[in-house]
């Protein structure tokens, strides 16, 4: 009976480690995904402002 309980505790410890590793891996993936989304948002905002600036310059040149 003691051997069986020891085995089940060991198995439970391994399973909890697997769950902990998968949670850590998921958090790591979420961090990478959020960083990619943030960088894409910054690049998108910068390019929109840059193109808006040049479009307004071209409009002024056409009006003059």
Q: How does this model look, in words?
A:
The chain crosses the membrane at residues 30-55. Keywords: Membrane, Transmembrane, Transmembrane helix. The protein is mostly helical and 64 residues long. The chain is built from one helix and no strands. 97% of the residues lie in helices and 0% in strands. The chain has one domain (1-64).
Query: Distance between the terminal alpha carbons, to the nearest Å?
Result: 94 Å
User: Structural class of the helix and strand makeup?
Assistant: mainly alpha
Summed over residues and divided by their number, the pLDDT gives a mean of: 65
The total tally of domains equals 1
Architecture blueprint of SSEs:
Layout (H helix, E strand, L loop, with lengths): L1 H62 L1
Quick rundown:
The chain has 64 residues and is mainly alpha-helical.
Features:
64 residues; mainly alpha; 1 helix; 97% helix; disordered N terminus; membrane; transmembrane
